[in-house]
Amino acid sequence: AVLGCRDPFSSEVKPRILLMGLRRSGKSSIQKVVFHKMSPNETLFLESTNKICREDVSNSSFVHFQIWDFPGQIDFFDPTFDYEMIFRGTGALIFVIDSQDDYVEALSRLHLTVTRAYKVNPDINFEVFIHKVDGLSDDHKIEKQRDIHKRANDDLVDAALERIHLSFYLTSIYDHSIFEAFSKVVQKLIPQLPTLENLLNIFISRIRIEKAFLFDVVSKIYIATDSSPVDMQTYELCCDMIDVVIDISCIYGVMGDEGGIPYDKESMAIIRLNNTTVMYLKEVTKFLALVCFLREESFERKGLIDYNFHCFRKAIQEVFEVRLKVLRSRKLLSQRRRSRQATPNGTPRVPS
Ligand SMILES: Nc1nc2c(ncn2[C@@H]2O[C@H](COP(=O)(O)OP(=O)(O)OP(=O)(O)O)[C@@H](O)[C@H]2O)c(=O)[nH]1
Predict the structure, then answer these.
(1) Sign of the dihedral defined by the CA atoms of residues 57, 63, 64, 66, in that order
(2) What residue's CA is closest to ligand 1, atom 29?
(3) With a 6 A CB cut-off, is 25 part of the ligand 1 pocket?
(4) What sections of the protein cross the membrane (predicted)?
């Protein structure tokens, strides 16, 4: 069978992310580095994927989605391959282009994939990762992005499909760009995002915090931040801080019964940088952490910060509870629907 993973047609409503691209473009590496803490060098030994691999990423209450890693050499447009079913349930389609290789073929494949997918489901977010940019100079990167952007959009205009919107990201597994890009892709799939952003804005304005991020600890994806612009260095510092906290907790912390990472209610860290900035990390939910940057003088009023944090945490948990309730009622509804289908006139169907 083409579909190698169990239960590919599960009816559970979860936004699905598809990872597509030519062979060796880096799809499996991206997935391993972002979600499995694999070190980038180890990806050199990854074997080629030859079946569709579906993985549920439900390590965080908010980041709850599936990734389908498609083998590069497979022909999605083979009539026996039900691409309609796959695209119908897709939230985001990430197309990976190897920037160190000739990308003419990748672009025509991108065009084909996007146009087919759009016909089935116009609500998909199309995300193009211009990948492996670690080997390129800054000028070269921008030049490549401009060229790929132009060619891909020209192809869409030629097909009278300019209404399809493609987003582009420069990525590499050797730095934080892949986490940043994934964060943006995931954020677009989180319906509560405006609420979370609002909560963060209120939180930081009350106690003069300069920047705050809400992180999914396991993947280091930030699922929301306040409305001030994000700079790469700040984001990298947050990722490093999470690594430090988790690594120290792995060595000295107490592992929970369920395995996983030693991260709990008590998890928090303060790092003072030598430019009078303080970084403050605190647990918000089982999977989420707040990481914020503030001036030393603002940090003196720690009691006030902690009080506001307490309110912020409560609000986040309430947002989360609403989501749980919605999911539960959806599940109930679909169960009822299914049981009604099974007994069309009151008598159970006898299996043939
Ligand atoms: N320089 C560089 N190499 C990368 C990067 N990402 C992946 N690679 C390398 O690219 C090669 C192919 O990566 P894979 O993840 O196996 O590619 P794939 O798209 O899953 O390939 P298939 O399974 O054949 O479809 C590996 O040797 C990786 O180490 C990157 O960001 N920079």
Answers:
(1) negative
(2) 44
(3) yes
(4) none
Q: At what angle do helices 177-187 and 27-36 cross, to 10 degrees?
A: 80
Give residue for tokens 């959009």. 153
Question: Is residue 29 exposed (0-12), middle (13-18) or buried (19+ Cβ within 10 Å)?
Answer: buried
pLDDT at residue 350 is higher than 50? no
Q: Tokens in use for 13? A: 């409503």
Atom of ligand 1 nearest to the CA of 171: 31
CA separation for the pair 127, 160 (Å, rounded): 20
Could you tell me the maximum CA-CA distance found in the chain, to the nearest angstrom?
75
Cα–Cα dist 82/105, whole Å: 23
Backbone angles phi, psi at 25, to 5 degrees: -75, -20
Pairing of strands 268-272, 277-283: antiparallel
Q: Which pLDDT score is estimated for 19?
A: 86
Q: What CA–CA distance (Å, rounded) separates 97 from 334?
A: 39
For tokens 């672009």, the residue is: 107
pTM: 0.80
